[in-house]
Amino acid sequence: MKRPVLAFLAVMASATASFAAGVTHHIALHISQDDPAVMNMVLNNAQNVSAYYAEQGDEVDIELVAYGPGLKMLVDGTSPVADRISAMSLEIQHMTFAACANTLAGMEKKAGHPIKLMSEATVVPSGVVRLVELQELGYAYVRP
User: pLDDT tens digit string along 127-136?
Assistant: First the structure.
């Protein structure tokens, strides 16, 4: 009877030690709407998740993927949430902003000129494909 109890205690001690050391969580956030309220909600989600896990002693990698009308969130000079994005990119260590190249190309074709994105944005070939890739890497997918 002592061996199963000792084995259980050893497993619990190991689990507690690894939990105490902190873990890294991976979150993919999605924005596809040109609505400042939704843009602010997705940024609120990122801030809340980051603050929660920091309080737990954990880390979190957050990637916000913008495509379709939601890409307007990352357009330099016209984003309704530009100030928040600039501040959050400095405050949240592991937060990135992915911009869909397909959407960007469509916006540029319609506008007849290049569209400049905010410096925080990284262009990815496809927003939807990027979300699939992140989920395949184990990211939790959140769509506000």
Answer: 999 999 999 9
